[in-house]
Amino acid sequence: MIWAAVLAGIAASAVTLWHMQRPRPPRIAISFSRFVPPLPAATSGKTRLALTVPRDLPTLFCLVLAALCAIWALLDADRLYRAQQPDHLGLRIVFDRSGSMAVADGPVSRFDSAMARLDLARQMVDGAGADGTCLEAVGVAGQIGPILAIGAGTPFPEADLAPMREGAEPALLLEAAALPAGDCALTHVLVLTDQPAVAGGLTERILLWDQVGAPVANAGIRSLSLLSGAFGQGAAELRVVGIASGGDVPAGLLLDGPAGALRLTVHGDPDVEGRWYAKGPYSGPGSYQARLTDGGGYDGDDLVVARIDRPAQIAVDWRLAGLSRPTVLTAGAEAAPLVTTADLLRPQDLSRPLLIAYPGFDGAAPRSGRQIGRFIEDDILFGALNFDAFEAALPTPWTGPLPPGFAPVMTDGSNAVLVARRERPFGLILPAPRLDLPETARNLSLTLFFAGLADLLALPPASQSLSWKDRSGADVVEAWRESRTDRALGTPADLAALTTTGTAQADLPIWPWAIAAALALVLAERLLRVARRHERLA
Amino acid sequence: MPALPFQTDPPLSPAMLDQLVLRWRRDAPAAGVGAHLRRRQGHSLEFREYRHWQRGDDIRAVDWRISARQPRDEDLLLRSFEAEDQLALAIVIDNRPDMALPETMPRLLYALWAARALTALALSKGDQVVLARLFDGPGDAVLSLRGGSAENKARRWAETLWHDRSQAKPRFADPRRILDKLRPAGAVVVISDMLFEDPEGLFLRFARRAQEKRRSLSVLQLDSIGHEIALLRAAVRFNLLRADRPDSDAVDEFDEAAFRTATDAVTDHLARLRRSIHGGGLDWPGTPVSWPEPGSVEGAPTSDLLKTLFIRSFPRLGLLSGLSLGGAA
Fold it and tell me: Closest Cα to residue A359, out of A385, A341, A340, A381?
């Protein structure tokens, strides 16, 4: 494009110089030259370049139009027009390079099957009898690869189309099919993949979706995650979830972690067909590896490695006298969240995540007329609380000003604060639990307290590193996309459609035509001028 | 061979040519058998009488058989033919390279058309025609024509002069050979621009001899000077080709004064030439055939315009009605 623009510029400059060039004076012989004394030398005739002033309306019209065409070419250089290229076959092969293409397809691999189809497609194109053909290939795995021009008679670049340890989405294949044409004016696009055809047509090219690969049973791991221990009820554990594609759940799963390896039992997920899960103990921060002993046709999704840094138990600085620390929590130091009563609170504690329990439930009989005032909905805090029962046993409010950063979450009818919260660092103020109250009030106080405690100790969300590995230990990118190898093989694409010589449409820049029009107008102006000159001589 | 743009056939239709008559002036001297004899039908050379050989007679004309019967060996008798007394018209073409100018309306072509037309008219009257070129160049220097194939010979001669005009040299051929063909009576027509140089006086002597005895000299002058000046004036700037600077790239500018000087010099030259060759039989009209100035007639200066000029000017030439047999005895 740049070269074309440079050439056009040079041509325009040359034409401009040509236009400005004054004609060489004619060589004239006369019959009486011997009688003619020496003539004065011309003064203005020595300058060969000069601005040429239009002498009549047609020449002026030509020059103005030429200038307009040149300006159009400059200002609207990006405009394209659709050009027809009849009797031409241009084929783009979109080749699926995802890991599942390495799956065995009978005695050969799916890749081998796709290459055979590619070879057949090329034969069809070459034998179509079109005036011109061109072929290009695009490999697609996790990303769209470069467009590879395949010259006539040259072997296919198998190395550039071989399966990769990556997953590929059908949408990405379609995106590659719709890429703008390079040097090859495209009439057809052939997608060679082991994935079933998806909707999405191309208006300018004939799209053929050719699925290869017979269904093959496969089991693969999709996730390995930590389930925090139900607070106060159990310990944290690991959960491995996978799919079973075209077969039963895998027979066994090996979990290897800091505490050693153990074999997990795999259960089918009753909620989702084809999904399974397995649970294992969490033995503290470290690297965990889950491996299927029999992963089926595709081996890229059989091994998952994850790094989990969550502690096995949560530490708490517990200063609550009326209630002992739950056993699932360990005693923490100054850095751990603080659970304390208001009277034990020190000023320096306000900078820590903390829960301040004040003596709200005093055991007195419910006072009539007291009710819950304004509150902020909070499922964690109030989700388990029966507001009617709570209003009947409404605790007394917080007395005094709230510590810095705390804001009311629940007030009573007189706008006195019952529950307050601080976001950073996290803090809660709520009535302290009492075990010596009547059952309803005791349960209400415990429910609210432990809801607040769970809110305090909830671990912040953190990203989890999870990677699939092949048998050699190399990473397999998004291997879970390739797990479903049992997809039914669709009808093979009719490659005879490749021989349909249609008209290729290519977007060509319009500026060369504008330049050509400008040059033609300049030429017309020149010719008009020459014609006028002859008329004058006559 | 591709067709050439110009042909030497005169652009006159046969009908137009038939209307033209070449008239010899009746005031020619009564010597001989009178003016403009017509050849008798069926005889190309009509025997008239025997006479004694005199010094200067062609020895080939002696009838040796009759002479042998004479009593004295030195009495030789000649056969005298009627044709010897017929008129002869010599047409002399100025074939200098300059006559091929102006390039768009070459005067040489006009001259050849005129020569061909005069030849046809003279031959139709039974006259002898002599075609000659004044300067060195292609073709016969002198061509004597008589008889049925004369016109074809004239055509070939003219075509040679025209198509090989580039071989012409501005050097006089031998004009005396022309006069040798003109015995005993005839007229000489010179078709030229009369602008040639004659430093050795060759043309001067030829012209004067052409007016001697019963001969006359007519000049058909072709003048394209005004036409050429107008072309230069329109061009404004040009490279004027001159013999003294053939390869110069100098750019000249039209100068009215310079060309006024040139036309004055031409006028002086023609006046001197007219005076120097003036004799009893000179017919050189004061008004030449002039090339039209560009713009004065419709159309570009082309061969068509030259044809138009010829068609308009040739029938009006004075020499058609006044070829003289006068001249110094």
Answer: A341
Instruction: For residues A31 and B225, give the distance between their C-alpha atoms in angstroms, rounded to a whole number.
Output: 7
Q: For residue A90, what are its two tokens?
A: 């241009």
Examine residue A58 and say whether the peptide bond preceding it is cis (omega within 30 degrees of 0). Answer: no
Record: contact B98-A31, CB cut-off 8 A: yes
Length, in residues, of chain B: 329
Residues B70 and B5: their CA atoms lie apart, in Å, by: 62
Return the residue matching tokens 């025609």. Answer: B129
Q: Which residues of A touch B241 (CB under 8 A)?
A: 27-30, 33
Exposed / middle / buried, residue A431 (Cβ in 10 Å: 0-12, 13-18, 19+): buried
Convert the pLDDT of each residue in B73-118 to its tens digit.
Answer: 677 887 765 444 457 889 999 999 999 988 889 999 999 999 999 9
Q: Which of A35, A43, A530, A532 to mutate to test the interface with B (most CBs of B within 10 A)?
A: A35
Give residue for tokens 């009908």. B15
Using CB atoms, which residue from B240, B253, B294 is nearest to A28? B240
pLDDT tens-digit readout, B252-282: 889 999 999 999 999 999 999 999 998 878 8
Q: Rounded CA gap, A168 and A484, in Å?
A: 12
ipTM of the complex: 0.78
Q: Among all chains, which residue has been given the structure tokens 């067909």?
A: A273
Q: CB A36 to CB B224 under 8 A?
A: no
Name the stretches of chain A with pLDDT < 50.
232-233, 537-538
Q: Among candidates B34, B17, B242, B191, which has minimal Cα distance to B121?
A: B17
Quick check: A40 and B238 CB within 8 A? Answer: no
Pull the structure tokens for residue A308. Answer: 């989990």
pLDDT tens, position by position, B149-172: 888 899 999 999 998 888 878 888
Report CB contact under 8 Å: B261, A29: no
How do A260-264 and A267-268 pair as beta strands? Answer: unpaired
Q: What is the pLDDT of residue A424?
A: 85
**Angle at A72 (CA atoms; ends A68, A75), nearest 5 degrees:** 135
Give the whole-angstrom CA distance, residue A331 versus residue B279.
156
Strand partners, A256: A261, A289
3-state class (DSSP) for residue A67: helix
* pLDDT of the residue at A478: 80
Q: Which of residues 203-262 of B touch A (CB under 8 A)?
A: 224-225, 228, 231-232, 234-235, 237-243, 250-255, 258-259, 261-262
Residue with tokens 């695009």: A138
